[in-house]
Every structure is written in C-alpha cells, then in structure tokens.
Here is the input.
Amino acid sequence: MPNPDPGGHWGEFGGRFVPEALIAALDELESAHASAMADPGFLAELDKLGREYGNLPSPLYLAERLSEEAGVEVWLKREDLNHTGAHKIRNVLGQALLTKRMGKTRIIAETGAGQHGVASATAAAYFGLECTVYMGEEDTRRQALNVARMRLLGAEVVPVTTGSRTLKDAMNEALREWVATVDGTHYLIGSVGGPHPFPMLVRDYCRGIGDEARAQFLERTGALPDVVAACVGGGSNAMGIFTAFLDDDVKLYGFEAGGDGYDTGRHAATITAGQIGVLHGARTFVLQNEDGQTIESHSISAGLDYPGVGPEHAHLAATGRAHYEPVDDAEAMAALEKLARTEGIICAIESAHGLAGALRLAKGLEPGARVLVNLSGRGDKDMGNVVEYYGYDGAFQEQGAQ
Amino acid sequence: MRAAEAFAKSKAEGRAALVGYLPAGFPTLADSIKAVEIMIDHGADIIELGLPYSDPVMDGPAIQRAADQALAQGFRTRQVFEVTEAVSGRVPILVMTYWNLVERYGVDRFARDFKAAGGAGLITPDLIPDEAQEWIAASDEHDLDRVFLVAPSSTEERIASTVEACRGFVYAQSVMGVTGARAATSAAAPELVRRTRAHTDLPIGVGLGVRSGDQAAEIASYGDAVIVGSAIVNCYLDADDIPAGHQRLADLTADLAEGVRR
Here is the structure.
C-alpha cells in the first residue's frame, strides 16, 4: 500500500495547510501512530477490541435476491452490523486507543448528522476519556436523537453557530478548539481528510474493511471481485475497502452524493465537480466558487454532505486508479428501498449511494460479474428522512431508479 | 513600501512598531479604506489587510463575524487590490490570508497584481514554509515580503527553518488559540520571542489578544511590533453605526500608538 511522501502528499494532494501552532501536535501524532502500527501489543489490543466490542470482522453477504434482479452477483460487506451501526467504530477505537497511548485524556470530534459523534462518545466512554463533540446548530435540531445518544454516553455536545452551521463549520470549530487545547486533547477526526497524518491514520484504522472482505471473498469464491463500490463523502469507508484492492486487477468505484441532481448544482459531488484547492488542512478537490470561498454542499445524506474529500481519493481519481461518479438523492433512495424489499436490510442513506451506483454499473457488466459493495452503515438513524422523503401515506413506490 | 522601512523608522525612534489588522471589505468596502486611513493617521506603522474567507480556522468570533459580513456584502478577492492601491504609499500594506484564496486566484498572478497595487507582502497563517514552494518563488519574482508564523509549540528546528523562509518580519503567535482580544496577554509570548530571536535578526511581531495601550506597552518591551486585530474589528462590531466605529478606531489606535511609545 503506497503511503504518502514524508510531508503527507499523494501526488499533488494532501500535505499540511494548518497554523504552525498545530505542527508539533501533528508530528507527535504521526510518530505515535507509526510506533503503534509497529507495536504487536497495540495491534493485538485493537484487534481484541474490534472482535469483542466492535463485533468485527463484519460478515460478507451474498445478496441473492438482489443479485437476481441486478443480473450480477452483489456481495455486501456488512459494516452495518458493527457496534454503533457503521464502519466508524473502527476509526474511533483506533484513534481512542492511540489517544491513551499518547497520554492524552480528552478527545474532541466534529460531526454532521451525529454518527461520528456517537461513535466518538462511545469510544470515549469505553476508554474513560473526556469527550466534546462539535455539531452544527442546524444538525443538533434535526438530529436530536443522536445528540441525546452522545449526552447519554457522557459527551458534551457543542452547537456550532458560525458560518453555514454545518459539518464544515463543526470541523472549523474543532480545529480552533484543538489549537487551544492541544497539549492534553486529541482531535479524533471523523474521516480521511484533514492535515497529514490524519488521512493516512484514519485509512489505516478503517482498512480492516477491505482486508477482511478480500480474504472473505477469496475464501468464498476462490477469486477477487470484479468491482468494489462504496459511497464517498470524506471517504473513510471507501478508503477502508479500497486499500486492500489497490494492487489488484479490481475496478474501484466511489459514489458521491449527487443531491438534487448533478445538473442542479445542489450536490456534494466534490471530485466530479470540484476544483483543486485547500480545505481543512489538505490540498484536495473542493466545492468552491471562483474566488476560492467554500460552497455549501447538498445531499439527503448528512454523512456525505461535505464540500471536500480525502486527499488520497483525490489522488486515486487523478491517477485513474479509482473512478468517482455522482448518485443523486432519488437514485439512492430507490436503492435503499430495493435492498429493504429484496433482502430485508435497511441500510444507511450514505451506503445506499454506493449500492445505487453499483446497481447502475451492473447494467454494463457481464452477467454473473461479481460486485462487492461496502454497506457502510445501517439505516435506523435515517428513518426520519425516509418518512419525510416518501411521505406518511405509505406510498413507498420505487422511484428514481434508472 | 516594504515592512523593513517601517521597522527602520520605529527602531530609529527606539520603539516597537504598531501593526493594525482589518479585513478588507469590512465594515464596507469604502469604510475599510477609511478605517485604514484612520489607523495610519493615528499612528499605525504597518497595515495588515485581512482577506475574508468562508472557513477561517485560526480566527475567533470577532474576525469571523467581520469576514462573514464582508462576504455577505459581496466582497471579491480582487477588491483587496483596490483597497491596497487606495491606501498604499504611506505605510507598508501586507495582506493576511488563508491560502486557498491565493491559490485559487493564482499564486503568481496574486503576487503580480498585489505588487502592482503597491502591496508589501503576505502573512500566511495556514501556509507553512514546507508547503510554500510556489509562494516563495512568486514572492522572490515580485519582490514581496513573506511572513510566516512561529508558535509557542514550535520546536527549535521549526523556528529556525521558518525564520529562514521569512522576509520582512516574523509573526509570533503568542498564545495557543484563535485570534481574539484577551484581558491578559500570554505569558508564553516573551519566551517565544526570546527563542525566535536566537535564530534571526529579522524583526519579530507579536500578535493575538492585544486590546489596549497598556498591553501594547508590555509587548513593546520585548517585541519589535505589536499586532492588533480583533480589538480593531470590535470597534465596529460594538459601535451603533460606522461613524461611531471610526471614532472608536481613532481612539483605540491613538491609545495603542501611545503604548508602543512608552
């Protein structure tokens, strides 16, 4: 697996675009992470935690009825069955264990819809760390249940009232807080973005998704999948599953949030539509205006609703190793419904973007081709959106599918 | 005018320089020009023009609000050159900016247009020298000052490499935290200045948290420049209207200018 250069760059992407005040902490983090990754004791403890607490490894599941309809084999990596309901538990357990190793006693985190906040609060509770979560004020109202979960787990939730009051502003606020408290506090970032070493570090903690899936796939089929698909917001679940397959003859597809439709301009398709720039400490693709001011993103899925993307994805896109396409709200919701009705699995709306993209791809594949989809999270948290999207009258028609 | 000229003058007068910060376009485009003139009239030696940005991760609430206001009024990057052109000639004008705005405009193009407007150089809070190859080349090409930051957490090695990349002066971020006026300035500041001075003969400006002549006098006892930002922005945020803000700014600048002369 290619790591970035010593400055944290993959090609022209990544790096450290942060105040000098944070550089010492980033250096400390980089060195702590490297030593942890080389320490069998740390890795064994993380593995044990994953198995006994996180419900890992997650199963690989052949969705037979869905496959029949799709005309290809659709295999699902069931990250929705993990503790706290998504792949995010892998990242927070890794970073929280690292926090303890660094002798820090407090974590801060940003969250959009609250899933990373809940996962962070969970890890903080497990390890006995203080936890403060920054969340856009709008989101604290829309996701009151997740705010309650975080508080029940003992975390402090700080509503962010600056800027557009969304995930990007929560990240701004977490970075501001980190500068002021960096001695005893770890910033438990929620995706493969931010300044080096965060994109590499979060990938390393999430890569178990792909490592497991690759071994499971070989064991079950004797071969590798033809295509691996995942949704991409910041991109942690996609990097998590892509990493194991980078050197294989396997096509990699990331599906970004197309929001109201790519043509409407109201979307979060950062790689498809963005330009190279600097956001939250890294050079990557950014949704920005002519002057470089960040543009607000739009998606039905809060977890994908972010105007930047992890720099390693930017590099994989620029080099052509992975392909990125938008999936709009309607197409994602149709896939969510189809999975529910054919397989009895209600996935997260985020993950439905990856599934929808895979089903679209399937139309151009040979019959019987094998497609692996990272089902990165479960949909319990999204039932409010589902009800709102389809209406209360129960008219759950399949709609929007191509 | 370059920063070195202002420092030569303040040094000859046996005092620290006063650096005033204001976002271009705040409180309005025309009034940001007026505000800079007020600061110069009342004793500012160097002006820092902020470039309003949607995601100012190093700024506290006051400067965030000012930037939001300027952007909501339609501020465009190129207007910083208009402001610079209108006020340049009397004191050095530097632009303090988050890096994406320069990168988006084009690093060399920005340097060229800013130089043509009479600008002295850039202060880059989220650009470390390690990532600054393009800016170092452009600032050499167009003969502009480049001011990087050192912080209390910087190692000796990083202070050495950062001051090596600086031209004009070095910006010492005196507290670990975002911008904002504070009742007491940082105890870490004198130590940071002492550590930085061991690596350079460049003047060292001390920023973050200054709001009064007394604090300016205290910082002037060990720093070569006293940098004031949020307190200047607050003149307008706290005033009933813009003329009242101008009056507050005149009074504050006079107080700060007196402070650096004690």
